[in-house]
Amino acid sequence: MVEIALPAVGTAAAWRDAVRRLAAEGVAPEAVRWSLGPAAPDLFAAQDARTRPEPALKIPRPALAEIETALHHSDPGRFTRAHMLVLALSRGETRWGDRSDPAQHRVMAEAKAVRRDIHKMHAFVRFRELPPEGAQAENQPSEVRRRFAAWFEPTHPVVEPAVPFFAKRFGDMDWVIATPLLTARFIAGHLTLSETPADQARPPEDGTERLWQTYYANIFNPARLMTRAMQSEMPKKYWHNLPEAELIPQLIRDAPARAARMAADLGSLPAPETAARQRNSRLPQRPAIGSARPQTLEDLAAQARACTRCPLHCNATQTVCGEGPADARLMIVGEQPGDQEDLAGRPFVGPAGQLFDRVATEAGLDRSRVWLTNAVKHFKFTPRGKRRIHQRPSSSEIEQCRWWLGLEAELIRPQAILAMGASAAEALTGSGANILRRRGSTESLPDGTPVLITLHPSALLRQPDAETARSQTEDFRNDLRKILSLVS
Ligand code: URA
């Protein structure tokens, strides 16, 4: 038997090289035992496993791509199956795309499961923000990158193909994703993968925020990990006999400075939205989930700024909290902050906000006496060139954010609420029914607080012609007058 242990990082590439060498040496798939793990004895030491060398392997590119994807499945027989299929394809014993071939069928099904798992990882990794490193965090320069960490358990070993997505998407942050097998680190723009040390292969059972923070702080620091990894590979007691060991203490001492230099070398000024996000990162960080129920609006805002209940916090510059007097009798709810609100950190300051202000003044409504907020507190957008295009929040994002809206209503206790647009109406009433049919009608919160439904001011900016815009604006003005009539 030939034993081949593939590395956990670079598995597919190592498997491909091994298969080429095995074919050149004429080692049959049945004579190979594959595993993931530390390096094996010499591949070709087992003379008795050799038969006839294969000519150079020739397989269609799409076949190789699919086979290599399937190597990230967790089935222990995948390496042998893939090896056999490569030989069968190369010898012309089967044609790529023939689903009646059980081996191809199985490999395709495994590749599909792997792609699904990668997709799930992209969708379900939940980052938690870590405080800036070092005690002097408050005084750090604004280029300091925000730090995030996540624990994730994929069904299959898909970390390697899955993480480039995160590097692209969250390129302006430092982050770590730990999984039972591999840990991916993206520090100062460099992505690295390493095996997860045994003592970090599981986060604390008791997931209280303090323990999570300690766990994440541990898995985060590459310098600390390097020290540990070095010491476990090469325990200290052997150092005095090893000439190269002299270098280790210095390497360890230099590691933080080297990391800082790497970060400084990035050099460029942050984009405005990144700078705003960095400013926000120095605000008090409090966990959203599992923390004490806020007793004041200030508490609520502090907690909401650390909210990671849904993925929108990852791309938005900051949480945009509601604003207004704590004793406001009227609460007005929009959909979500737009581009300008996201940068300014205040609701309704962009074009829709300006239109709202104008019509509100005409209706006799004083914005400074209203609690003005949004159903969703983070800006959802898709980047297009340099622009960020607004995207409607999903029902699940609205649902996650209802926690904050509910607390706002509880602390303000308004006499009436105006829901502007479908997302606000859904957040307040739980119903996503057609907004055009509900416009002008009054529904209520479970405690009886009246909720008047109206269109969102941005809808007034999108009317097809001037006359429709005028009459819709008139209706909106009347809705503002109506809500005013509901409060004393
Ligand atoms: N649209 C909203 O719904 N809210 C804002 O804060 C800005 C635009």
Summarize the structure.
By secondary structure, the chain is an alpha/beta fold.
What does this structure look like?
The protein is α/β, with parallel strands linked by helices and 488 residues long. The chain is built from 18 helices and 14 strands. A hairpin with a 2-residue loop joins strand 6 (182-187) and strand 7 (190-195). The longest helix is centred in the N-terminal third of the chain and has 23 residues, at 102-124. The N and C termini lie far apart (87 Å). Mean pLDDT is 83; it is low at 135-142 and 261-290. Uracil (URA) binds next to helix 13.
Outline type: elongated
Q: Give Rg in angstroms.
A: 29 Å
The number of helical runs is 18
Residues in helix, %: 40-55%
- What small molecules does the structure contain? uracil
Strand content: 5-15%
Read across the widest sheet, the strand sequence of neighbours is 3-4-5-6-7
Count the beta strands.
14
| Sheet having the most strands | 5 strands, mixed
Our measurement of the CA-to-CA distance between the termini, rounded to an integer number of angstroms, reads 87 Å
Mean pLDDT level: 83
| Low-pLDDT segments | 135-142, 261-290
Structural class: alpha/beta
